[in-house]
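FORM 7B: Structural annotation worksheet

SECTION A. Query
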Amino acid sequence: MPKVSTYDITGVQTGAMELNDSVFGVDVNEAVMRQAVLRQLANERLGTHSTKTRGLVHGGGRKPWKQKGTGRARCGSIRSPLWVGGGTVFGPHPRDYAQKMPRKARRLAVKSALSDKVNTGELFVLNELKLEAAKTKEIVNIVNNFKFADEKVLFITDGDDIMTRCTRNIKGVKSVSAEGMNIFDLLHYTKLFVTKSAVAKIEEVLA
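SECTION B. Predicted structure
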């Protein structure tokens, strides 16, 4: 079973903790992680882009000039794609970009990301995360205590709304609940802080 050190919010090591091998000790599957990231990004696309074809552009119901005898090229409508203000050929239309992925594969991707953080020493378990006040400065102090001011830091808690409010104004720092954890955040942020209570929830769901 993987074993990691535990810390308090001052950055002092307080002990060690064994993690569930089926969650934090799986073989890293990069292909599944890539597929999960692409799925998440694709599902976030709105797909509301739209263009008008020549049949949707207003006007152009009358033939501009007669077919022959004017010396000009023949033309049937001023809304032809060849004209300025005309329709668009093969333009984008509203569509759904959502991708499907089996639940087991999605969970494997998250397990792989967590296991990779453990293997690279980028996962830090905090005994608890109690703030003296709901202030951004409290989070800045925690990050500075670990000397991660220049890193991208992700906090995973057991659902503390105060953490979300305290981290949303700090560039490169984010806080999510154990239920809201996703593959993109796990890979995007280089340092991962997880509370003991959040570890228990993660192991309960993914084990």
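SECTION C. Observations
The beta strands are 3-7, 13-18, 123-126, 153-157, 173-177, 191-195. The first helix runs from residue 21 to 24.

SECTION D. Sign-off
Analyst initials: ____
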